[in-house]
Amino acid sequence: MPDLPELAASFTAALQDAGIAVGPDRTRSFARAVTVLAPSTTRELRHCALATLVSEREQIEPFDAVFRQVFGARADSPVQRGQPGDPTRDLLNTVPGRVPGTRPGTADRHREAGPQSGKAPVPLAASPLDRLAGRDFAELSPEELTRLSQAMHTLVLRTPTRPSRRHRTAQRGARIDVRRTLSASRRTGGYPLRLRRFVPRTRPRDLVVLCDISGSMEPYARAMLQLLYCASRASRAEVFTFATRLTRLTPVLRRSGPDDALAQAGRAAPDWSGGTRIADCLAEFNERFGRRGMAHGAVIAIISDGWDTGAPADLATHMARLSRVAYRVVWVNPRTASPRYRPLVGGMAAALPYCDAVVSAHSLAALDDFTAALSAPRRRR
Fold first, then answer.
1. Which residue from 66, 106, 210, 223 lies 20 to 30 Å from 319 (Cα-Cα)?
2. CB 362 within 8 A of CB 334
3. What's the pLDDT tens digit per position in 108-119?
4. What are the Cα distances from residue 154, in Å, to 9, 119, 299?
5. Which segments within 138-256 are labelled E, that is strand?
6. In angstroms, rounded to a whole number, what is the distance separating the alpha carbons of residues 69 and 315?
7. How far apart are the C-alpha atoms of 197 and 37, rounded to whole Å?
8. How many CB atoms lie within 10 A of CB 178?
9. Can you tell me the distance from the alpha carbon of 113 to that of 346, in angstroms, rounded to the nearest whole number?
């Protein structure tokens, strides 16, 4: 039986597969709610999940289907609630994070000895995922990065919507659907008593991620590759890496699983941990891909610390060209997490005027700012 972090990760992953957007922040909120409230019935556990994981009324029906599939939950009758036969009581054993059938730990002994000793129950410590959420990616060991990979796989990168060429019927629209109006008028003797209208459909904007894999970004390379794998799973997402050359990783990441994709991505980028030529790589992207329409109206995310061996003026020129065709440019710099950071590096100073947002994304908790920056509307520069 999995512990609470694994249980929350598998449950939210199943919700994600069912079409319910659940990010790392909501996964942590669900695990924290179970830890604090210690639900003893299926009904209480469902209420914890509803309050932390569901944001729209339309999501309740698919949520209940996933809940029954994951927990085997049935509507618990009054005689069963809290009894030993309750599946949720057996699953959590009334202590969040405790695996049934194991010996009670220190926190369990304090909870059981609470009424006799007269002391207040000692709350459980935070889950391993919560303890790692605020730590810098560069400080994590390979084992800890592997532990975070489950939460990274539930990450959803959303972009703003754009009007599509297709239309859909609506009660109130700016344009009249003449074909449907005339078709409906045949039922009323040829008189169009009711005007049919339509509005354009919307679809998410394209997402393009360019990740710096040079030597200065090596401490964050493993975590950033996990982030790139999540980006490749988003609809219409393109992934590139760059150091001394530009490498397109989208086909590699899409046709492989997470572990194989990361290994193949490392082999596909021969300039791993090399020098940095951001201006040249941006120029190549603009010429080979941007002019073909990949960057037009798209959200561009550049992951780099700004260290560049080229001239800052060249980087400013290519950033200006990119910003004119892109809908939004988000620069991800893990170094900005330090309060002493100043954009004094030539490359970062040259690119800053053409960025709509600059975020750190140096930890799992900081990825919330990154996802918010991607989905934010465009601002006037």
1. 223
2. yes
3. 444 444 444 343
4. 8, 39, 20
5. 161-170, 175-176, 197-204, 207-212, 237-242, 246-248
6. 52
7. 49
8. 11
9. 62
Show the tokens assigned to 37.
């409230």
DSSP string, 255-324: SS-HHHHHHHHHHH-TTTT----HHHHHHHHIIIIITTTSSTT-EEEEE-----SS-HHHHHHHHHHHHH
Distance CA 154, CA 369 (A): 16
The answer to whether the Cα torsion of 355, 202, 16, 54 is positive or negative is: positive
pLDDT surpassing 50 at residue 82: no
Distance between CA atoms of residues 132 and 345, nearest Å: 30
Residue 117, CA atoms < 13 Å, CB-side half-sphere = 10
pTM for this predicted structure: 0.61
| CA dist., res. 228 & res. 209, Å (int) | 7
pLDDT higher than 90, residue 317: yes
Position of tokens 């560049």? Answer: 308
Least confident range from 24-38, 96-110, 256-270: namely 96-110
Domains of the chain with bracketed CATH: 4-127 (no CATH), 165-203 (no CATH), 207-375 (3.40.50.410)
